[in-house]
Amino acid sequence: MDPAPRPNALKSMGHRLSLTKLRRALSGRKKKLEEIQEPDEPYQTTPTTTKPEEGQEEEEEEDDDDDMNEGNTVIGLLGGGQLGRMLCEAANPLGIDIAILDEHNAPAKQAHNTNRHVVGSFKDPGRIKELAARSDYLSVEIEHVDTEVLEDIEKNGVPVEINGEIVTHRPPIHPSWRTLRLIQDKYLQKEHFKSSGKTIPIAEQIAIESGDAALDSLKKAGKQFGFPFMLKARKGSYDGRGNFKVDSEDDFAEAIKALGTLPLYAEKWAPFVKELAVMVIRTEDSDGKLKNCVAYPAVETIHEDSICTKVFMPPRDVSEDICEKARKLATEVISTLWGRGVFAVEMFLLEDASLMINEVAPRPHNSGHYTIEAVPYMSQYKAQLHAVLDLPVPDKLIPRVQSSIMLNILGGAKPDSHHHLSGLARSTYDDDMDVYLHLYNKESKPSRKIGHITLTGFCSVQELEAKAKPFIDLVDQIRLDRLEATSETLRPTQETNGSAKPAEKAPVEPATDNHVEAQELSAEAASSDKPLVLVTMGSDSDLPVLKAGLDILKEFNVPYALDITSAHRTPKYMMKVADEAAGKGIKVIIAAAGGAAHLPGMISSETPLPVIGVPVKATHLDGIDSLLSIVQMPRGVPTATVGINNSTNAALLAIRILGAFVPEYQQAMKKYQVDMEEAVIVKGTKLREGGDAAYLAGMKK
Ligand code: ADP
Ligand code: MG
């Protein structure tokens, strides 16, 4: 069967009709659809891209748009974090509709009201196809998406039903899935630049073998590059997660442990003096032929703790000549890719004034936020919209201010740590410096990007920096407080007995710097490699009872240490462990014992930490003996007690205690409680609707 016409077929008519208008056109004229495919399950949705009759579009333009966003061109966006939010803010006045695929109420969805949003994961092929079916174009605000399904949509389209007829719909995808796939793999990305035929300097790199061969590979890298060198996960990394600086052969084992089983590559250390970034708008025609690459000014990016914290435009103490070279290089790099849109090019400025490409992001980028105010006629977000929709873009991008500084607002030690900073931004009015506050309406978590402030001026960047000092000082103070709190709570410095958690810097599920990811929680927890909970038992026979609790700790990503400390057989060792636990960074102790269960109480007498006793049912007396031994502690030596054998509650209580000072754990606990409530509601509904007989039959299965 022939495929349905490509949207590009409409190009010859001057512009594309939006899907909604086309649907109405089809409905009004009962136009016979050509080249119909018969998919198994067409999406019950409105759009198609089938070619309308000549002259039809002018009439359609005059129709009233009663429905929300009716008639606007729809861009389907995979991901709805702050980049998507700012894209929506740019789209709103332009009459462009953005359909977001992400969690309910994601930051971008809050900024754009439409009935086309899709709830779900941007990694879910089914949801991506659903989004495609209701969009004129597809784009992304995050590169870690399923490119297989995007390729499938480009090649085979998605079936949509329009007024009872089935058509194949192929929204153009920008940037191309080819670009996304290439960029997802940092190693291949740079191999591509190397073999592009253009002069694109990159750091020397070698792929690292997996499994047992990894060590030999690392030795080879050490020999070839010298030390230090950078070991990087090829895929899924962001904000420095997934990178490991290898200082010597001694780091090999830790590096392999930290980066786990992911495909890795090693990169020669780049002794940079500054990091620069350039945003580039890439346009191409509907046949995929490059039209133009237009560069924004070069900026200086400051990374602290592997996160971009500040951006300076123009870069401080960098000559115009180097800035121009950076822009030219960035356009060269982006010209080798595929599809339309804005791209960020991260680069290193080396001591000898040469430039080296670090990596590319195929989307709006943190280093381009400043363009909202500094290049207001074509911010990076407006540029993304214009490029994707093939609308005009300027052939030069000159800022409308002399200098600009962007400061990220990162979540601090406490949920309100940033309030002084946002308050200062709200209350500062200065003839020589304009202040623009952006908050993303994301819950504050330590190090999370929750907003940014852009400062602009008609003075040198150094003068602007001096004027911006109160802002910069507050940003730095929030960071210092966060680091201090983190080192006190999540990063105890001393060793304890064994840890169930992987080492620091382990990569997490793909996400980007901008995205609201469920995984942020586990990432945050994973950033602590030292145990927070000590789980100890009087005898190894208690271990099976503790398993349920250990599973809970794992589920919540709580690092824990295990030990056997018998109150009667190893009393000295038990007291030593109890005495040293707090100093080793442990925050809560879970102690399980059966029979004459003195362990929890004895530990409690020796430590200032909260101790939760788990009474274990021993051979005789049904565990009542254990329970009473633990619960009947004398005044002054409090010891929490859970039900007999109920290590689940011991673990949950431990997490609640941690949650009192680590917001992530409290948040996770809330979610756990909501999930538990939902599970009971589902059961109740099933019982009410199906009756007891059917329910019991179901339970027997
Ligand atoms: P991410 O995906 O987290 O942005 P990058 O590969 O860009 O990861 O690395 C994060 C930061 O680590 C860079 O901005 C730079 O500061 C530093 N870095 C990365 N690669 C190298 C290198 N080869 N040499 C020195 N520093 C590097
Ligand atoms: Mg980077």
From TrEMBL:
Biased composition, Polar residues: where in the chain? 486-499
Reaction(s) catalysed by this chain, per the record, are: 5-amino-1-(5-phospho-D-ribosyl)imidazole-4-carboxylate + H(+) = 5-amino-1-(5-phospho-beta-D-ribosyl)imidazole + CO2
Composition-biased stretches (Basic residues): 21-31
Residue ranges of the region described as Disordered: 1-74, 486-513
Please note every region of biased composition (Acidic residues).
55-69
Domain ATP-grasp, first and last residues per copy: 192-389
Name of the protein: Phosphoribosylaminoimidazole carboxylase
Which organism does this record belong to?
Podospora bellae-mahoneyi
